[in-house]
Task: structure prediction
Amino acid sequence: MPPLFSDANNIRYFELRGISLRKNRATLRAIAIIRLLSASNSPLRLTAISGALHIPKSSTFEILHTLADEGIVEIADSALKTFKVGLGLLEVGLHALSQIDLPREAHPLLKELNRLTGETAILAVEDKGCMVCLDRIEGRSMLRTSVKLGARVQMHCTALGKAVLAAYQDAKALEILKTRRLRKMTNNTIGNIRDLQRDLKRIRERGFAIDDQESYPNVSCVGAPVYSELNRVVAAVSVAAPTSSVDSEKLHHFGALIQKTALRISKRLGYPCHVLYPPMEEGSLSTRGRNPQPEKRQHGYER
Result:
């Protein structure tokens, strides 16, 4: 990265050079502004940014304030109209880094989970309201599900998805649920938001999620969230087994193993806490340590 110069003629590195018209101009301008601010040792005036990148002042103003609203840049001095890189950019970078490291850090622990349970172990990340499978180690039962590498599965009816939803703040979980149709995959699928919110509350109390034949008949799963060093949920792990081969005791044994595995992966990513569902802020569905009696489902599993 070359140093920043005050003379606009010397910052060719940052210009929109050789740009294909098929690319979005506003996006390219925003990227150029971020790079320019990142290379500067001091805040830059709006006029300096506009002149350096040959972007109209009106467009520069709109882009900068949009980025500021999102925390990517910050207004250093409103009177002087100077801007600097925001902490949001660091957060995005660290999150991307943790995602890149995630499969490598998780794979040996997934293998151990598979060895301990004999069942299919899965790692997935949330993307646009779905869970995307990043890694899968097949169990002895060779389950016939669509959760293959790269496959997208629903959040509301899988242990992977519900584990992540329970880790989100209520507002974020509700936002995701309202934008997705809660499709009934089986007779056990939870089909409305209110019942699903109750289930998320139980997940937080229990410490892991249960998919009781909610996405596939005769497939039961347990899942738990994985966190990064930023205390943010970045993924989930699960164990899937034929319902006919697991009773309530065995399922909850798998639950204890999935909790341990998720926490160990999280620790590898720098997660500083010792629990997967820390008490949330006031107004959350979390019960902060209450231990209610678990509910029963159709075939006897404790919820």
Notes: The longest helix spans residues 87-117. Residues 95-268 form a domain with the Beta-Lactamase fold (CATH 3.30.450.40).
